């Protein structure tokens, strides 16, 4: 479970990085469930899917495309469920990534003396099961600023405090890593508390576990690996988190590239490259004699040890630098941007 959550967070943060680089609009949304819409929500197993599909179609329409086109190239989403700590009420936190804003999206602060509004009017009333609060993610040189939107102020009338453009990613990530919520959902306690707080007890509530939802291939985009050597690809599958915060994404992309190459290899190529067969049992026995039984565990650990920057080739280092995903590079980039959630 921990590894799965970590992978989801890596994908979210990589999507934030890519959206910023590509100049996409980022919107943070909170979806709640109204008492009188609970039954309709639980009756529809595709409620969330339909909602995100509708948003994708709005982006397609804004780009002058057909509603049945794939919106994968212009809209992506990430959604995390949360059970409230007070009474266990279910709601969702979502991040929308849009290449083009839906038709009718205008700066909510245009013409206002106090620029304290941040909600997108075009996305309001699109969630049919309760209340939604779509908020523009603002930072220096964001897509909204380039479109002429005014910089908003806080409740005191002061300009929003400058933070990294990745701040919203960390904000959502805390819900992914919120173990108490995961335990609450798994045990059904949140739904039980919520159910008891309602005036009308609904028999269909609770026994449904909601998980993280995201677009297909969400946050998996990386610099092409087609020109990398096989040795480099193998190294990328073994990188540790200290080398790059996106090590799991690199691992999956490198494995995919190796599978694609393997599909192009002929039987003759495989036979020609076939190494001398090693008797694994004899190899392990010899290794145990060499290192001693007491060190067997450390020996096995060394077979799967994660690589650091000092362990990899110059080709692998150059790839990480060019992709801009080393820890040092990401620290530098975080200083280039600023803004509020």
UniProtKB/TrEMBL annotation:
Belongs to the phage GPA family. Residues 3-182 form the Replication gene A protein-like domain. The lineage of its organism: Bacteria, Pseudomonadati, Pseudomonadota, Alphaproteobacteria, Hyphomicrobiales. InterPro entries: Replication_gene_A-like. GO terms for biological process: DNA replication. It comes from the Bacteria. This is Replication-associated protein A. Possible endonuclease which induces a single-strand cut and initiates DNA replication. GO terms for molecular function: DNA ligase (ATP) activity; endonuclease activity; hydrolase activity. Its EC number is 3.1.21.-, 6.5.1.1. Pfam families: Phage_GPA. It comes from Mesorhizobium plurifarium. Keywords: DNA replication, Endonuclease, Hydrolase, Ligase, Nuclease.
């Amino acid at each position: 479970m921990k590894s799965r959550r970590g992978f989801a967070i890596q994908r979210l943060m990589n999507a934030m990085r890519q959206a910023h680089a590509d100049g996409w609009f980022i919107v943070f949304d909170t979806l709640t469930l109204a008492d009188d819409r609970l039954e309709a929500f639980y009756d529809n197993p595709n409620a969330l899917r339909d909602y995100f599909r509708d948003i994708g179609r709005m982006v397609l329409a804004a780009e002058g495309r057909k509603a049945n086109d794939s919106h994968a190239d212009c809209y992506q989403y990430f959604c995390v469920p949360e059970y409230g700590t007070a009474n266990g009420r279910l709601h969702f936190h979502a991040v929308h990534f849009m290449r083009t804003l839906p038709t009718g999206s205008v700066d909510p602060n245009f013409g206002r003396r106090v620029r304290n509004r941040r909600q997108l009017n075009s996305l309001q009333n699109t969630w049919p099961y309760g209340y939604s609060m779509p908020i523009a993610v603002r930072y220096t040189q964001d897509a909204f600023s380039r479109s002429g939107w005014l910089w908003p102020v806080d409740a005191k009338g002061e300009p929003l405090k400058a933070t990294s453009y990745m701040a919203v990613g960390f904000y959502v990530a805390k819900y992914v890593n919120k173990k108490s919520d995961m335990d609450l959902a798994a045990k059904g306690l949140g739904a039980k508390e919520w159910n008891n707080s309602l005036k009308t007890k609904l028999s269909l509530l609770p026994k449904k576990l909601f998980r993280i939802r995201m677009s297909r291939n969400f946050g998996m985009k990386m610099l092409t690996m087609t020109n990398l050597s096989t040795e480099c690809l193998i190294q990328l599958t073994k990188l540790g988190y200290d080398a790059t915060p996106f090590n799991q994404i690199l691992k999956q992309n490198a494995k995919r590239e190796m599978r694609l190459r393997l599909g192009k290899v002929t039987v003759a190529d495989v036979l020609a490259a076939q190494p001398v067969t090693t008797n694994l049992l004899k190899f392990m026995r010899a290794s145990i004699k060499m290192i001693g039984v007491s060190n067997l565990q450390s020996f096995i650990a060394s077979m799967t040890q994660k690589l650091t920057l000092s362990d990899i080739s110059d080709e692998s280092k150059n790839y990480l630098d060019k992709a801009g995903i080393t820890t040092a590079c990401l620290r530098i980039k975080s200083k280039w941007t600023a803004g509020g959630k």
